[in-house]
Amino acid sequence: MMAATRGALIVLEGCDRVGKSTQAKLLVEYLTKRGKPAKLMNFPDRSTTIGKLLDEYLKQGQEFDDHAVHLLFSANRWEAASSMEKLLKSGTTLVLDRYSDSGIAFSSAKGLDFDWCRNSDAGLPLPDLVLFLQLSQEESRARGGYGQERYEKEQFQATVRDKFSRLQQDNWTVVSAEQKSIEELQCELRKLVDAAVKSALNKSLGHLPT
Ligand code: Z5A
Ligand code: MG
After folding, report:
1. How far is the CA of 64 from the centre of ligand 2 (A)?
2. What is the pTM of this model?
3. Could you report the predicted ipTM of this complex, rounded to two decimals?
């Protein structure tokens, strides 16, 4: 059955420092100001019990087998799934700062099988729009040094970049962030988001396939 009031599920993906968090926050502010209920969600959500384990792992205070930590990242999305569905169905648009594709790209960059990585997310709410922000390694480097977290290393990030390009899905909208100010990029994203919010009204919510 179609819900006349459904919100859209919008995902921001992309490599390190491309501006996902900056743009996601601005998009939620934009939608809210225009009277459209919207909520920002980050993955990993470091505030939950599983999220705290992931935070420790990313800060290199805790070790896990690569498969086990992939499943924890996935479980961190599953623990949000029912509240995501509820919010979407009640008309709130969700703007996600990373989601399933980050899970596949980062875990497969460590050598895990693509399909194995994808399977644990099958059944999660399906994005209406994945905005994949693209930035060259040179411009990303110019945005400042890496932090201290586990994956913040140039060689590993290059492997993730390669996995993202192999993963590129039909439903992604690839947007270049190259040589664009925060405001210029936001302006472009708003148009895409407005269209997605409008078209989600007439669609039922899907689920990620295997
Ligand atoms: N991970 C995983 O392994 N498996 C999973 O399933 C999931 C995640 C979901 C934590 O993620 C790690 O978890 C991540 C993947 C892994 N590891 N890495 N790397 P995170 O999202 O918490 O990581 P983050 O450090 O917040 O995000 P980020 O990717 O590094 O950055 P960003 O959000 O894309 O960029 P930003 O914070 O908005 O901006 C970065 C800087 O650039 C900042 O100083 C901005 O002011 C500046 N900026 C932004 N836009 C511009 C423009 N247009 N021009 C100039 N400067 C700009
Ligand atoms: Mg971020």
Report:
1. 23
2. 0.97
3. 0.98
